[in-house]
C-alpha cells in the first residue's frame, strides 16, 4: 500500500517527513477531568461554571436524576428535578429496558442519539457495557438507514457541515466549533456511504457513528473528536427532489472546484488544530479516496478507513484463520469480488504481509491475489483500460467474465467480497469453493446486511458446514446438522479506535503501513481457542476495550520504532499507558 501510494505522490514516503511540531501529546487534559479519580470532585466548566437549568441542558455534565442532594443544593437544581436520586447503574438499566421495547432498529438509533445529546456519559456507559447489542444500532447496519433518512430525523447538529458556500471561509467555520483542542476528525463527502451510494450531506451519520466508537471502544475523549461532512452537492436525484433534504441541492462539484475546497479544508485543519490531528477519510468514492490519501499522506496525519482500516481488519482475520486452514499466507490463493477502495486496500496489505514474512518481492506476492470487478477477472490484457489502483492486480490469464468461472479457473482457498452488491456469492459459487477446499474461507464484507454477498446461513448450508465465514455486518449464530456456527464480523471497529488511540497517545505525525500490519497482528493474537472451536476468526466485542489498548500499544510501539512518534520519553509499558489514557464514562462528583 505504501509503495502504491508512493507512486501516486512523486516517490515521497511518510518516513521522509521531519517532525516540525516538537513534543506534545494527543491526550492533553486541560482541566484535569480525566486525571481525577472517581472520588475526586471536578468543576463543571462551560464558559463559566454551569449551574441550574443550563447544567441540565449540557450533555457533557448532565447526570439527570443522579445529581446528589449536595450537588442539587450547590448548583441550583432544587425544583428542576424530581426528588428521587438514582445511580448511574439504575439509569442504565432503565434506558436499556426502554430501548428493548422498540421493534424498529431506527427507533433505537434515534433514542441513542437523543441520549447522547442530553447525557454523554450515560450514552457511553450504555454503549461500553452493552457493546454487542448496541454496536449494530449506533453503527452498521442501522446507521445506513439513518443516513438514508437523515433529513427527516435531523434534530440538532452533531458536527460541522462545510459546503461550497463556505469556500474561502473554512478556517472561520472550524473556529465556530466550541471545542478548541481536537485530536481526531472523521470527514466524509457522502458520495459512497456504505453500500448505499451517494447520500450527500446525509452521510453525516457516518462520522458521528465512527467517533462514538472512537470513544466507546478506543477510549478517546469525546471532547477531542470532531465529525465533519463536506457538502459539494449530490448526484442522487431522489435527494435533490426531496423537500426535506438538508444539503446543497445541486449536482456534485468535481475537478478543480472540488480539489480547491479539499485543499482549503486540509490546510485549515492543520492551521487550526496543529500537525498531530488525525484526519480519517470516510466513505469517499474510489476516484477521490485514493487521490486524497496519496496527496496528503506525507503532509498530514491521514488515514482512510475504507482502504486501510478495512485492510487491517481483514488481514487480522486471515492471520487468525491460518490456525484453522493451515499453512502461511503465502501458501494460499485469494480471489476478490470487488476492486474498489476496500478490495485493493486489503489485497495490498495481504501482499505486504506476505513480503514481510517471506522476503519475496512485492510484485511476486501480488500474484497470489486475483480481483474480479464489474467487467470480470482483472487480467493483463485489460491493463490499458484499468484505473490506476487496479493495474498492479492485472495478471497474465485468459479473460474471465463471471465469478463462478473465475473460482473454477483460479481455484482460490479464500474468497473475499467487497463489491457492495448483495447475493453475489451464489449457491453455485459457495459449492464450488467447498469442492475445491476442505475448509474454504468465505468473507462477505459488504455493508449493510442487505448488501452482503451472502448470509452466514447460506455459507454454512451450501458448504455443508465446512466453510469458515466472516462478514462485514453481524449475523446470528447458525444451527446446521447439530452444530452451532458463530460467524466472525470483520468490522473496522476492531481496529480504528485502538489504532487512533495509539497514534494520539504517542504523538505520531504520520501513518505508515507497518503500523497497519502491527494492528492486524495484535488483533489476530486476541482470538482464543474457544473462538476457534466456534468457527470464529475474530474475538467477541465484549473484550473490545482490552483489545483496543493492546492494538494501541502495538501501533504506538511501531511508531516509536519508525521514528514517527513525538511523545517522549517513550512509556516503559505501552499497554498500561494506553489504558491510563482511555476515557471512562462514570459520573464525576461536582464541587
Automatic annotation (TrEMBL):
It holds the Pfam family Malic_M. Residues 116-297 form the Malic enzyme N-terminal domain. Residues 307-560 form the Malic enzyme NAD-binding domain. A divalent metal cation binds at residues 282-283, 306. GO terms for biological process: malate metabolic process. The chloroplastic ME isoform decarboxylates malate shuttled from neighboring mesophyll cells. The CO(2) released is then refixed by ribulose-bisphosphate carboxylase. This pathway eliminates the photorespiratory loss of CO(2) that occurs in most plants. This is Malic enzyme. It comes from Solanum stoloniferum. The lineage of its organism: Eukaryota, Viridiplantae, Streptophyta, Embryophyta, Tracheophyta.
Amino acid at each position: 500500500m505504501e509503495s502504491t501510494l508512493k507512486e501516486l505522490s512523486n516517490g515521497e514516503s511518510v518516513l521522509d517527513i521531519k517532525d516540525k511540531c516538537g513534543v506534545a501529546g494527543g491526550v492533553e487534559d486541560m482541566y484535569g477531568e480525566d486525571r481525577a479519580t472517581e472520588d475526586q470532585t471536578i468543576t463543571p466548566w462551560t464558559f463559566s461554571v454551569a449551574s441550574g437549568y443550563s447544567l441540565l441542558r449540557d450533555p457533557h455534565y448532565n447526570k439527570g436524576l443522579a445529581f446528589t442532594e449536595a450537588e442539587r443544593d450547590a448548583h441550583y437544581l432544587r425544583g428542576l428535578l424530581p426528588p428521587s436520586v438514582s445511580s448511574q447503574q439504575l439509569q442504565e438499566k432503565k434506558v436499556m429496558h426502554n430501548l428493548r421495547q422498540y421493534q424498529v432498529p431506527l427507533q433505537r438509533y434515534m433514542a441513542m442519539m437523543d441520549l447522547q445529546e442530553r447525557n454523554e456519559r450515560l450514552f457511553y456507559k450504555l454503549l461500553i457495557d452493552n457493546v454487542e447489542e448496541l454496536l449494530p444500532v449506533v453503527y452498521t447496519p442501522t446507521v445506513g438507514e439513518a443516513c438514508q433518512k437523515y433529513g427527516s430525523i435531523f434534530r440538532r447538529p452533531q458536527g460541522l457541515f462545510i459546503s461550497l458556500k463556505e469556500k474561502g471561509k473554512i478556517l472561520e467555520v472550524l473556529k465556530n466549533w466550541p471545542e478548541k483542542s481536537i485530536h481526531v476528525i472523521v470527514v466524509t463527502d457522502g458520495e459512497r456511504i456504505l453500500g448505499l451510494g451517494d447520500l450527500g450531506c446525509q452521510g453525516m451519520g457516518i462520522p458521528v457513528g465512527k467517533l462514538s466508537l472512537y470513544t466507546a471502544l478506543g477510549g478517546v475523549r469525546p471532547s477531542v473528536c470532531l465529525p465533519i461532512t463536506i457538502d459539494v452537492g449530490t448526484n442522487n436525484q431522489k435527494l435533490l427532489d426531496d423537500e426535506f433534504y438538508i444539503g446543497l441541492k445541486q449536482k456534485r462539484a468535481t475537478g478543480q472546484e472540488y480539489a480547491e475546497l479539499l485543499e482549503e479544508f486540509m490546510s485549515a485543519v492543520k492551521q487550526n488544530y496543529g500537525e498531530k490531528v488525525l484526519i480519517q477519510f470516510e466513505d469517499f468514492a474510489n476516484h477521490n479516496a485514493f487521490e486524497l490519501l496519496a496527496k496528503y499522506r506525507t503532509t498530514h496525519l491521514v488515514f482512510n478507513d475504507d482502504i486501510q482500516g478495512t485492510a487491517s481488519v481483514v488481514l487480522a482475520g486471515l492471520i487468525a484463520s491460518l490456525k484453522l486452514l493451515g499453512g502461511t499466507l503465502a501458501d494460499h490463493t485469494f480471489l476478490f469480488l470487488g476492486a474498489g477502495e476496500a478490495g485493493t486496500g486489503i489485497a495490498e496489505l495481504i501482499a505486504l504481509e506476505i513480503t514481510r514474512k517471506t522476503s519475496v518481492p512485492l510484485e511476486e506476492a501480488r500474484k497470489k491475489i486475483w480481483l474480479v470487478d464489474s467487467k470480470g477477472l482483472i487480467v493483463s490484457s485489460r491493463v490499458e483500460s484499468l484505473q490506476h489502483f487496479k493495474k498492479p492486480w492485472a495478471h497474465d490469464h485468459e479473460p474471465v467474465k463471471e465469478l463462478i468461472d473465475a473460482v473454477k479457473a483460479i481455484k482460490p482457498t479464500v474468497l473475499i467480497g467487497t463489491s457492495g452488491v448483495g447475493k453475489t456469492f451464489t449457491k453455485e459459487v459457495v459449492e464450488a469453493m467447498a469442492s475445491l477446499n476442505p475448509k474454504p474461507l468465505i468473507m462477505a464484507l459488504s455493508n449493510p446486511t442487505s448488501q452482503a454477498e451472502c448470509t452466514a446461513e447460506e455459507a454454512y448450508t451450501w458448504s455443508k458446514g465446512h466453510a469458515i465465514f466472516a462478514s462485514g455486518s453481524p449475523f446470528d449464530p447458525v444451527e446446521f446438522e447439530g452444530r452451532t456456527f458463530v460467524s466472525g464480523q470483520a468490522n473496522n471497529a476492531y481496529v480504528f479506535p485502538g489504532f487512533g488511540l495509539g497514534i494520539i497517545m504517542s504523538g505520531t505525525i504520520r501513518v505508515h503501513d507497518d503500523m497497519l500490519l502491527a494492528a492486524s497482528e495484535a488483533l489476530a493474537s486476541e482470538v482464543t481457542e474457544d473462538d476457534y472451536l466456534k468457527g470464529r476468526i475474530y474475538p467477541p466485542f465484549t473484550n473490545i476495550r482490552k483489545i483496543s489498548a493492546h492494538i494501541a500499544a502495538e501501533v504506538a510501539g511501531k511508531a516509536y520504532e519508525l521514528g514517527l512518534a513525538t511523545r517522549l520519553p517513550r512509556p516503559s509499558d505501552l499497554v498500561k499507558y494506553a489504558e491510563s489514557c482511555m476515557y471512562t464514562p462514570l459520573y464525576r462528583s461536582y464541587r
